[in-house]
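Intended use. Records like the one below are meant for learning the mapping from a protein sequence to its folded structure. Do not use them to infer anything beyond what is encoded.
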Amino acid sequence: MASTVIGTTLPDGGRLELTIEEVGADGATLVIKTWSKSAAPGSKPNKTDLVELYKVRRLKGQDVLTCLAKAPGPDPVVTCALKAGAGQQDRSLRLVVKGSLGGLFDRDDTLKIADAQYQNGLAFLKAADFAVQ
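Structure written out for the chain above:
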């Protein structure tokens, strides 16, 4: 099963690390770790969230995954998109969550990522065996 880790610095100076691991033909586990800007390198994250994803699909001809997340209330739609940008300095990851209970966890964030993180994400998409839609 394929997996990857994508890390970035947040606009507030904190750090974010996303780990996604393929689980079966249409499932994945997403681990979201965040550190405050004052956290020392190598320290434990301030927050760790584990999200089970299902009905994971790759959009045809795109570097995009779409799926549903198991959550209290309605299961929100999660979309993760890698964006190449104009050059290696313009790589990004867009994370969109829609339809969570009362919009509590809805978000639409575009995060700058290093070229190496972008390449890790592309390698994961290529290696994972998710259905294409």
